[in-house]
Every structure is written in C-alpha cells, then in structure tokens.
Design goal:
The protein is an alpha+beta fold and 171 residues long. It contains 4 helices and 8 strands; from the N terminus they run βαβαβαβββββα.
Length: 171
C-alpha cells in the first residue's frame, strides 16, 4: 500500500503579493511550521508577480488552522464593490501593491495651483500602500507640460548665460 509523501510541498495560499506572502511565512515560522515561497527572490524584483505559499503536506492542517484567522487581500479582489466599476487585475504603478481603490475627487499634484478632477468613469486609482494617485491609461500628452516647462527653463537659462557672457566681454 502506497503511503503519501508527507514531505511533499503543497500550496496553502496562492496569488499573494510579496509583502503578504512574507507576512504569512513569518507567521507560520513563528509558530514552528516551516513555510516556503515560490518566486521569493524574483518577487522582490518584479513587483507585479504573484507568489504562492507552500507548506509540507504533514503540516497542512496546522498551517491552515494558524492562517484561518489572518485575512489577506488576494490580488485584485480586495477592491471589488468599492465603486461602480470593478478594478480588475490592476497593480499600483509605483509600488506594485494590489491595495488600490478607485478614486473620485481632486487629485493632489506636485505643481501648485494645478487641480486635476477625477470623475467616477475617468479611471483614477489611489494606492493605500504608497499613497499615490494614477490613472489606468496615460494621456497622449501627459508629459507635455513637463517637457514645455523644462524647455522654457533651459531656454531662459541659455539666454541668460549669453547675456552674462556678452556683458562680461564689454567690461
């Protein structure tokens, strides 16, 4: 009669981001249950990768009991019902977190006196992990104001240097 391999690794949680997976792994190891992560090293390099948490088959029942009281946000399902639209499988562009919420209101900007309003169907998101705001799709001219600002600054700087050099030549 075949005995099941009790040292075989089985998945206990899947589709986690790197922070959640490490939190669950440390929780299990703190209770004396060895745990392993798939994509542990590549998950820290690629913020959009999913990680699975493994335990040995013989430790599965104890690990399930230990994790039964811990609630995690599965990727892209923690935001369902937060707005009229479903967020879908969207991760934060800045930190890769799946803890994003649809955003409606005035979007904070780094440029003083510039106000951007986000409507319910404009596709704006707020990441609760890194506190950033972004849209699902970039505008064609999203970098145009920055480019125009830099070109104006560099033009004024070059013109000022030319005037300074000419003034110093006539002294």
């Amino acid at each position: 009669m075949d005995q099941p391999d009790l040292d075989k690794l089985v998945v206990i949680r899947s589709g986690l981001d790197g922070h959640q997976a490490n939190m669950l792994k440390l929780n299990l190891e703190g209770q004396g249950i060895p745990a392993f992560l798939a994509n542990e090293n590549t998950g820290s390099l690629n913020l959009l990768s999913h990680t699975d948490l493994f335990v040995r088959a013989k430790d599965w029942a104890a690990a399930e009991q230990a994790l039964s009281k811990i609630e995690t946000f599965p990727r892209a399902s923690g935001n369902v019902g937060a707005d009229v639209r479903d967020v879908g499988d969207v991760g934060c562009r800045h930190c890769g977190s799946s803890r994003i919420m649809p955003f409606v209101g005035n979007v904070p900007t780094a440029i003083p006196f510039v106000v951007t309003k986000a409507g319910p169907m404009d596709g704006w998101y707020h990441c609760t992990e890194c506190d950033s705001y972004y849209t699902a799709s970039r505008s064609r001219f999203s970098s145009m104001p920055i480019a125009l600002g830099w070109s104006a600054f560099m033009g004024v700087l070059a013109f000022g240097l030319i005037l300074l050099i000419n003034w110093l030549m006539y002294l």
